[in-house]
Amino acid sequence: MSDTTQSLDLSAVDAYLRDHLPGYAGPLEARKFDVGQSNPTFLLATPARNYVLRRKPPGVLLKSAHAVDREFRVQRALADTDVPVPRMYLLCEDDAVIGSAFYVMEHLDGRNFAEPTMEGETNATRTAVIDEMNRVLAALHSVDIDAVGLSDYGPPGNYFERQISRWTKQYRASETGTIADMDALIEALGQDMPEDDGQRTLVHGDYRIDNMMFEKGGTRCLGVLDWELSTIGHPYADLAAVIMQWQMPPGREGRGLAGVDRAALGLPTDDEFIAAYCARRGIGGIDRFGFYLAFTFFRMAAIIQGVYKRALDGNASNPERARMLGQYVGVFAQNGLRALRG
């Protein structure tokens, strides 16, 4: 049985797949992807085809976190929609097999952009990739959740109220020291929350370019990945998450567009991206966007605090990166306050 996030019990995985996955045949090799801070992700290679395995990390975990069963369910439900996702093969909820629940899905043979500047690409490619990102986001928020069987995928009520409560609890559970800006942001979000406008859609929860796979040599999206934070909620949270990421510094750490001459690279402004999204969904505009942006900064701060705490506890998927991320909790909180006030 595997007791680490860094490796798999290959013999156990091989035996399980032989019994449960039609068409599977070994020998089996595995390699852990560097990405995937929350749920460790592995490439499974066989002579005939490759697969991807995502597992819940072992050890003591925060309540409701690392729900690989939800990831599996939502991607399977989206199989016949306009939202591209990998094919889901099987879900194993028996911890006895490798030490924690896992699922196996299709390996998408495409390319991934680590950051929105897409270094080395042409302006035409950058423009088309970001427009495809916009199209997929609008398609996601247009999915008929009743028709695909996801109407019960999230509780009713005010999504932001629910999320702020949830992530405040998660943050407090993983808190390693007092961060005044985070405390101030939590209080301000509760006081400045807009009235619920009744929009209730499927939301991804971590929608950004590095969680998408695109075709090789093209700009079509092959699949949206990493659905752990998905639920039924408010679509503006996903839209604001894109804008939040772009406000971070460029490069492999920030993966943003702060200070970048976007026009010179063929990239849209925040307002242009938002306008294109609204046009695709038939929305006239978005009031008080600063609140939604502040919320996404808050949620990301809470998430990386949890990643940092797992690193201290020895359960992080990538311990070195997790410790580095922990330094940015206060920065995200500051940015959230700035968005809310500005």
What features would you describe in this structure?
With 342 residues, the protein is of the alpha+beta class. It folds into 2 domains: 97 residues, 2-Layer Sandwich (Phosphorylase Kinase, domain 1); 219 residues, Aminoglycoside phosphotransferase (APH), C-terminal lobe (Aminoglycoside 3'-phosphotransferase, Chain: A, domain 2, Alpha-Beta Complex), CATH 3.90.1200.10. The protein has 11 helices and 9 strands. The radius of gyration is 20 Å and the shape is globular.
CATH architecture level-2 label of the largest domain: Alpha-Beta Complex
First and last CA, distance = 52 Å
Number of helical segments with 4 or more residues? 11
Largest sheet: 5 strands, antiparallel
Order of helices and strands: HEEEHEEHHHEEEEHHHHHH
Provide the gyration radius in Å: 20 Å
The proportion of strand residues reads: 5-15%
CATH topology of the largest domain: Aminoglycoside 3'-phosphotransferase, Chain: A, domain 2
CATH class of the largest domain: Alpha Beta
The average pLDDT value, as a whole number, equals 91
Q: Record the strand order, biggest sheet.
A: 1-2-3-5-4
